[in-house]
Here is the input.
Amino acid sequence: MVEPEGERVIEGIAAAEGLAVGPIVFQHTASLGHRAAGSPLEEREALNAAMAEASREIGVLVAGADKLAAEILEFQGALLEDEDLLGAVLGQLDAGGAAHDAWAETIDGEVAEYRAGDDEYFRARAEDLLDLKTRVLRRLHGAAACDLPPAAEDGILVAEDLTPSRFLELDWSLLRGAAIQGGSPTSHVAILARARGIPLVVGLDAELDDCIQGAPAVLDAKTGRLVIAPNKGTLARIKRAQAALASERCAAEALVDRPAVLTTGDTVQVLINVDDPAILEATVPAHCDGIGLTRTEFLFRDGHLPGEDAQFEAYRRLIVWAGGRSVTIRTLDAGGDKPIPGVTPIGETNPFLGVRGLRLSLQTPALFAVQLRALARAAALGPLKVMVPMVTVPQEMDRVRALLNDTLAGLAAKGVAHARPALGMMVEVPVAAMTADRFDVDFFSIGSNDLVQYLTACARDNPAVAPLADPRNPAVLELIRRVVEAARAKGVEVSLCGDMASDPDLVPLLLDCGLRSISVAPALIGRVKLAIQRHGGGAG
Ligand code: PEP
Ligand code: MG
Here is the structure.
């Protein structure tokens, strides 16, 4: 791009929305320098001390952490207690190795294994292993915890990389945002930044050096840019954008507890997506029209399959929280980007096109039966909709309906309280979208994340192809419109619960496709309602 005179524009990827102006606080990853190795006994003692110190530091961070941060930190804490890992390091020390080499080599070996697997969960965890590796190495080398350079206040942190635990150590009240060379929008650091509203740009495409220290800069984490020594024009533009963002947030806040109404007077249902019931503690039921998607994979997070009663209890809580508003619970959508060790098949060459979602539930009938029973029992407590993911052909839904009928009959025979929930499907496989009129269901919910992935042939977890996976592609919008029309013709409800619905810029397009119900991330309720209110009405 043409750079206005004097300023330096570094392109990156926006990972957490926001805009900031301030001096650069540059932190380059200091080399740890030389460390002389001692005797095997001395090296053992040095390693033990470094690990104990790392464990103490992580403990301090856990104490002030929220659920997400605690999960990341506890994983690192557990690694420090992992006997196999420790055994491998100690083995090298006994053979005369230096503690820093043994620790680094062992962790690097683990990281390579984590990264080589198919499992997205383990690939993400590699980041945490490297974080822990650095922390222990710093202790071994006696490096002080690196404080921010002076004049950090109101600055923009620029670094080669930022580990999750380092992110959690920083005092973000002193900083306005960050830009890093490494990272990706799906990294833990990006997730932490989004959750805290800290503007973040990752993947900076430039070499960085000390001479940028203290330079005035603009962080544009909407377009994904760092501008060093911005000229007057850039500063004026970013100030206007900041003011617009602030007034947008303010207007959204004012709308959050009101129904979403188009300028034509039509009401649009705004439901919420629940990935983890913990989010409900911070969400007011009256701000939404109910729950449009519950990703029940949260039940299986620690690798144990909860029994019927535990599932029933989890579903009961959602229904109680909703207080009479409808609650949509999706049956297990394991596989693809949501693998569950011990449940999803291993060794598939392409798990996104393999046995995932409903396909897996139908192949593991015992698991599916437990979930259907718990759901049918919960349906007696309030308006419950059961939604099935990754449906391809009508016969699959016919099988699910037959299984649900068996479940209801079984509960009736035993005199267990239950009710028939509405039964619907996600529309996220292109052939299902094109033949929606043929499915015998009570409702549809369009899964735009997978629909876009399968239509554009771009893996949703691969940032390298992200620009091609454009939800504005006319083929995507045309297919959404067709599903809405098919639902209308059948007289069944249709909603959309993919990430498109949580993007205020895309909401008008969905309304133009005729949608009058969407399910969004709880944090975005206000901004989405604002986008609806501003929309002219469109098709419908
Ligand atoms: C989707 O595919 O759009 C969807 C909502 O489901 P998930 O993101 O859980 O696959
Ligand atoms: Mg999906």
User: Anything to note?
Assistant: The mean pLDDT is 90. The longest helix spans residues 40-63. The pocket of magnesium ion (ligand 2) is lined by residues 389, 428, 447, 449-450 (CB under 6 Å).
